[in-house]
Amino acid sequence: MDREHGPVTPPVQPPPQRTGTHDADSADSREYGAGSGLRFTVLGPVRVVRDGEALPSGSPQQRALLAALLLREGGTATAAELIDGIWGERPPTQALAALRTYASRLRKVLPADALVSESGGYALRVPPGSVDLPTARGLADRAGKARAAGDRGGARELLARSLEKWDGEPLASVPGPYAETQRTRLAEWRLTLLETRLELDLECGRHAGTVSELTALTAAHPLRERLRELLMLALYRGGRQAEALAVYADTRRLLAEELGVDPGPELARLQERILRADEELARSAEESAAYTGPTRPAQLPAAVPDFTGRAPFVRELGARLAGSGGAEGAETAGGGTGAGSVMAVSALAGIGGVGKTTLAVHVAHAARPGFPDGQLYVDLQGAGPRPAEPEVVLGAFLRALGTADTAVPDGLEERAALYRSTLAGRRVLVLLDNARDAAQVRPLLPGTAGCAALVTSRVRMVDLAGAYLVDLDVMAPDEALQLFTRIVGAERVGAEREASLDVVAACGFLPLAIRIAASRLAARRTWTVSALAAKLADERRRLDELRAGDLAVKATFELGYGQLEPAQARAFRLLGLADGPDVSLAAAAAMLDLPAEEAEELLESLVDASLLESAAPGRYRFHDLVRLFARSCAESGAAGRPEGAAALDRLLGFYLATAARVYAIERPGDRLVDRLEPAGYAGLDFADRYAAMDWLYAEAHCLLACARQSSAEVTSGGDRLRRAVDLLWAAKDLAESGANAQQYEAAAITARQAARAAGDARSEGRARTALTNVHLVAGRYDEADEEARTARDLAVASGDAASVYWTDNDRGIIALNQGRYPDAEELWQRARDGARADGNPSVEASAVCNLSRLHGFTERPDSAIRLAREGLALYRRIGGDMRLDNARYALGVILSHSGRYAEALVELTQAAHGFGRNRQWLWQGTAYFRVAEAQLTSRRAPLAAQHAEEALSLGCIGGDRMRGNVLTVLGRALDALGQSDRARACWQEALALYERLGAPEADQVRALLTPLAAA
């Protein structure tokens, strides 16, 4: 496909959807434009429309008469008033006759009795809802009522619908003083409505999406302080404090130069609040309505009602927590500080299922009175393959403590610092459950006295400085029997005491195992305790807790597994083998080699047995420990391994076949799908390309996990490795998605390593090509070049012709961005010729479009445009909207480079809209960046600033270097608008990015900043 990287690339996130919160009413059906019939417009050109067809409205003066009558909304206008309104102080000598002529002509167009003569003048009687102005006013009135009632979302949508009634300048091209007065009034009203809608956007927390619109509006209305105030607020809430203050500085200078006045008190107060980082200002109205100051979180899970034993630990930990609330700062006789002057940290360690969480929650609830400012809780998921990231946990904690979303900083260190500051002077208990290691815990610890932390983990945290370590062992026999009795009931246990002792002994006195076994017995009134004891007597159903640490609960899971029917047990075993976070019904059916209906029945039965969770409709997942148990079942015995390997092969085949189908839909004519390894299993069919893309992005994590797992488990190359690598090729859109880029890269690295170890040149070459694409998207051209060179050599050695010309195409992009233009031309010519020889018009078109860019860069405008149009024609011939948008983008860049900006804007705008439809957000952002460049060169600074803001919001391919390019263009546009302080802020951010990357663009930005520094 056509890609652009580094100084030439695209990404974005889609705009927010309108959400209506008001009820539709009968007035909606009468709105202007809602149906057929006669309609009139004054909020734009004055028109008469019947059943969608415009009727002749006559000369400008005749339209002036029509507009004057429409604006009176059925009221009578005298002839003198109309003559004065149409011609002013110097009417023609036959003005009255001309007026009558215009009225007569209008009667021929309008329905009978619509235009009436009365009281020496005229009145126009039209059906309700047929004129756009009253409809717009009605929507605005409804918006005011909705806002007064607290329905900001509904008010915002109603105002947006009101503003949609405008179609350019009101009363466009209508002459006369009356029309001019009304035109000014209506334009001012529209601007007021727009300001109100933007206020509602900010009140609803939509600050990110309003910046580009406000930038354009402040450029069009530079002296309107309310717009400047809204822009400052939107920038501040978006984390752009320096730019917000720069807007104030620009406004103050402009008002002084133009009017000789200072900014109004509202603007001055806003600047002062931004300077002192007012927390309330950072919250939207909806956030503020719910904000009542620092909140007191109460996040502790419910304590189990049948908590049993552990008395020494309860006393010991309770004393530690109580000590944390002593007199702060009091020194001991030995010169140290008392217990209350330092934060208490207690870390509980033990094997899985030993009751760490139950004990910690019980102790925390008992200690709540000592921590009146709240209790925080999080499951750090340390026992699973995906432990919680401290940065994410800190974000959740900060929000729970009352910090607004917009005030939560990025980065682990910044969040940890704000977290400690927020807790300073407060007494909060933090329970960190299921931690992986001390490194995960450290950023989550409060930093001041008065607070305390309880940590549970399966490892002893000897490297957690200052922590009080508690090793939790299994229960004593009497405590274990007491727990069993509380769940099962004293009557049943008393009748079979010896059998009950046998049960808890078989559970290894492990609380989790006892609890699960007892719960199952309690749910089955027909079972005897002896029957359960007999089941547990078989050691094959149990695991000695001293053997496997975390697997000590395996015996407990076996109780449930042993009750499964054969088909259920097989499904349980096989599904546990997949590495993905969950599994879709279709993928599960492939693993089980069953029709979807049968597979769904089995999966739902496992959900009922509490061995599987229903993550969402049609999706299933294992608890981490249950997954480990399922895998141990699948991998035990000689027969189990081949069955498991076959299931994973079917899963890989399913993903490859389906991803290849998505690829073929997205890229018609691309023969890559013919060069993939046979999938070996059927994939899904899709009704349209949107359903195909929905599937790809929904399955991204599981698909990439499958590719990585399939590569990692290969030791000798062969069919599975080749299919895993080809799955990455077929799913290459995920490398450019932003959200999946890191996982895609990890899978490609694993595949490359496996292929190299297996001596599979073809697979290694294709894995390196996949990595090349990842590096290109991120703007890492040196790494991309290294991978691409090796990939081509391997492709030649293995006879992989498709990889050869595909790699040549990638290397051309690298050469272009590194300024090696002769190399780029040679590489793209080879790619074009290779693709043409292989009958692959999609890659041929890509190479041709890339060549056009090179010709544009090397001052060959005529051939550049010819090649771009040739590539566009190729894409049109083979079809495929997304590739066509790439070609339009390439043509637009060339036309812009050639100085043909009007034509360039047409192509780039079409490309941007197409990228948005196809959810290629990074590409859409890059297209908007190119639009901004063209607008700036065409001296349309307001539009350039607006589109540069869109690009910043969406993001662009090429990483930080491309962001620097966008900031540079935005700064130039703002400087052209007289907003030099905000321009400086943009250029300073761009310079920091360029200097960190060692990019040559840094010199250009320094040159831009020098005059501002001297000013």
Structural class: mainly alpha
Question: Approximately how much helix is present in the residues?
Answer: 55-70%
Please tally the β strands and state the result. 14
Name the overall outline: globular
Overview of this structure, please?
The protein has about 1000 residues and is mainly alpha-helical. It contains 45 helices and 14 strands. The strands form four sheets. A five-stranded parallel beta sheet has the order 8-9-10-7-11, sandwiched between helices. It has a three-stranded antiparallel beta sheet with strand order 1-2-3, with no helix packed on it. Helix 33 (about 760-780) runs parallel beside helix 35 (about 800-815) and helix 36 (about 820-835) runs antiparallel to helix 37. The two termini are about 45 Å apart. The model is unreliable at about 1-35, about 325-340 and about 540-550 (pLDDT under 50).
In short:
The strands form 4 sheets. The chain has a 5-stranded parallel sheet, sandwiched between helices. The protein has a 3-stranded antiparallel sheet with strand order 1-2-3, with no helix packed on it. It has a 3-stranded antiparallel sheet with strand order 4-6-5. The chain contains 45 helices and 14 strands. With 1015 residues, the chain is mainly α.
